[in-house]
Each structure stands twice: as structure tokens, then as C-alpha cells.
Amino acid sequence: MDIIFYHPSFDTQFWLDKLSQALPDARVREWKPGDNEPADYALVWHPPVDMLQGRSLKAVFALGAGVDSILSQLNAHPDMLPESIPLFRLEDTGMALQMQEYAVSQVLHWFRRFDDYHAQKQQARWQELDEYQREDFTIGILGAGVLGSKVAESLQAWGFPLRCWSRSRKSWPGVQSFAGENELGNFLQGTRVLINLLPNTSETRGIINVSLLNQLADNAYLLNLARGVHVVEDDLLQALESGKLKGAMLDVFSKEPLPASSPLWAHPRVAMTPHIAAVTRPNEAIDYIARTITKLEQGEPVTGQVDRTRGY
Ligand SMILES: NC(=O)C1=CN([C@@H]2O[C@H](COP(=O)(O)OP(=O)(O)OC[C@H]3O[C@@H](n4cnc5c(N)ncnc54)[C@H](OP(=O)(O)O)[C@@H]3O)[C@@H](O)[C@H]2O)C=CC1
Ligand SMILES: O=CC(=O)O
């Protein structure tokens, strides 16, 4: 079996060595421009179109959880990957724990008013503030998939009221489930901390806009862990100015790296990280890919296949 690998920034040799160890019968090689030799599987992130075009592959694996970039490439070049070739993505493979760490630490930061205490420190001000109450700190998670479900689980341990919003209804103990567009308004009403873990699709792009933000509880917080294009950045700034939003923590931006001219950099109530909320962990990812390829070869059922019509 032949496997081709392409990632613009990973340590390719490390991946080739580890993949060869995990799949000893496979010949694994880095794809380079001009390589038209046959291959059975392709492991990719932001692949050049000619890497995949015209190949009769058994499957393609995206080396991340979100497949928005490869699906948008496919929109522009539908012949790059015919529908008959399944596309897989990474399901968790170590990302859920990272998302849990990020979400729990940020929610507790806001709940314990460390943002306010930090602002007071800037003014050398020693003043005890009123404590927030858990019952006023309802957390709403947009997206109740692999990562959203794990984030909900970790926040449950802290006793916050929890709710989630997805396309299909969930029945998770202790989490109120809202499903579909018709229930989005009820989901937002009373939500104090909004955590975004939606995929980037034509239905979700721009979803965090002025109309959505206005439906949140007053003095709400936004934690965007999914994609920058979910948020209309001008509307976010407006909601911060009006006081509707007390703070925002952003890991992702509509343009990355965030341009130096963005007003988000200097905003005192916006914190940010450079798209590191959950990075691909090579060992776990290789383990998942090797297991999935082995099952595909044996005709066994697998998980992680992207529904290209749905967009995630
Ligand atoms: N910042 C970072 O470092 C990282 C960001 N990400 C982002 O996180 C996203 C989520 O990942 P993951 O949890 O694995 O994805 P999943 O596909 O497992 O979950 C997606 C969830 O979103 C819901 N959803 C999709 N479309 C809609 C819609 N139109 N209306 C309501 N709900 C919708 C789905 O509903 P249903 O359950 O009904 O299908 C599902 O619950 C990724 O797509 C990626 O963009 C991922 C990894 C790292
Ligand atoms: O943003 C990262 C991903 O895996 O998706």
C-alpha cells in the first residue's frame, strides 16, 4: 500500500517515520510537486490541487478536525476529489482535552472576575468585588459534536448551568439541548457565556452577529474556539462598546495571522491566542489514521468520514 503525505508546516520526516512504524506494510512518502506515482491514501492539510487531482485513491485524511479549507478548495476544483473517494477528518485525537483545558480555564477566569481584578491592578486599585453566582452563569455551547460534547462534560464538573445547540437533539444528562434554527433564540436567551465549537459551513458563517449577540444575557462573554468567520468582527466590537458583551476570548480570526491594523489587538476586553486552542497531536492522530486504514483495508466500519453535502 502507498501513502502520500503533505503538510505545509509539520515535521514531515517525523510523520513519515511514525506512520511507517504504525503501518509496517505501507510505503509512505512525502508528496512533492510533479509526483504522479500511484497512491492508495493521501494525508493532507491545505494540499496543492495537483496532489489529489486525477488520483484513484481509496481515501483522503485531513490532518485536522475542521475540513472547511479542503471543502472550499473542492468547491473551486470539484475534480480534485471525486465524491466516490471518502474524506476523513481527525475526531478528537487529543484535541478534546486541549479544548477542555482552554474552556474551563477561561470560564473560571471570567467567573472569578480575574478580568476585573486585572483591570483594577492596572490602576493600582485594591477593592473586593461582589462574587458572581453560578446560577447567573449559564454556559451555552454552539456545536455539540466531538469537541463540544467533551467541553460540556468538563464544565459540568464545575456546576454551571449548561446548554448546547446543534442540528440534532442531544440527550445528555444535565445539559439542556436546543436543536435547529427554530430553537436558537431560546438557547441564547439567558446564556451568559457563549462558547463556539461549530464547523465552518455555509449555514454557520457569520452566525455570531449583532442579532445573535443582542439575544444573550447582559454582560455576556464570548469564547470563540472554532473559526474566525463565524464572528462578524465589527458586530463583536459594537457589542463590546455597548456593554452587551463584557469580554471576548478569541483563538481564531477571519484573517490569520490577525492583521496589525485590527482594533481587536488593542481592545482592553478582548484576549486572544493565535489559533492554538487544540493542535493536532501527531501520535494520537497517527494512531487513529493507522487504525482507520487497517479497518478500511479489512472492510470494517470506521468513523470520522466527512459528509461533503452537509459540510462537516
Ligand atoms: N481553534 C482550534 O484550534 C480548533 C478548532 N476546531 C474547530 O472546531 C470545530 C468543531 O469540531 P468537532 O466538534 O470535531 O466537530 P463535529 O463535526 O463533531 O461537531 C459539529 C457540531 O456542530 C453542529 N452543527 C453543525 N452545523 C450546524 C448548524 N447549521 N446548526 C446547528 N448546529 C450545527 C453539529 O450538529 P449535529 O450534532 O446535529 O450534527 C455538531 O454538534 C471544527 O469544525 C473546527 O472548525 C477544531 C479543532 C481545533
Ligand atoms: O483548527 C484546527 C483544526 O484541526 O481544525
TrEMBL record:
Its EC number is 1.1.1.79, 1.1.1.81. It holds the Pfam family 2-Hacid_dh_C. It comes from the Bacteria. HAMAP family: 2_Hacid_dh_C_GhrA (MF_01666). It is found in: Cytoplasm. Belongs to the D-isomer specific 2-hydroxyacid dehydrogenase family. GhrA subfamily. The active site is at residues 227, 275. Its main location: cytoplasm. It catalyses: (R)-glycerate + NAD(+) = 3-hydroxypyruvate + NADH + H(+); glycolate + NADP(+) = glyoxylate + NADPH + H(+); (R)-glycerate + NADP(+) = 3-hydroxypyruvate + NADPH + H(+). Signal peptide: none annotated. Residues 105-277 form the D-isomer specific 2-hydroxyacid dehydrogenase NAD-binding domain. GO terms for cellular component: cytosol. Keywords: Cytoplasm, NAD, NADP, Oxidoreductase, Pyruvate. Catalyzes the NADPH-dependent reduction of glyoxylate and hydroxypyruvate into glycolate and glycerate, respectively. GO terms for molecular function: glyoxylate reductase (NADPH) activity; hydroxypyruvate reductase (NADH) activity; hydroxypyruvate reductase (NADPH) activity; NAD binding. InterPro entries: D-isomer_DH_CS (IPR029753), D-isomer_DH_NAD-bd (IPR006140), GhrA_Enterobacterales (IPR023514), NAD(P)-bd_dom_sf (IPR036291). This is Glyoxylate/hydroxypyruvate reductase A.
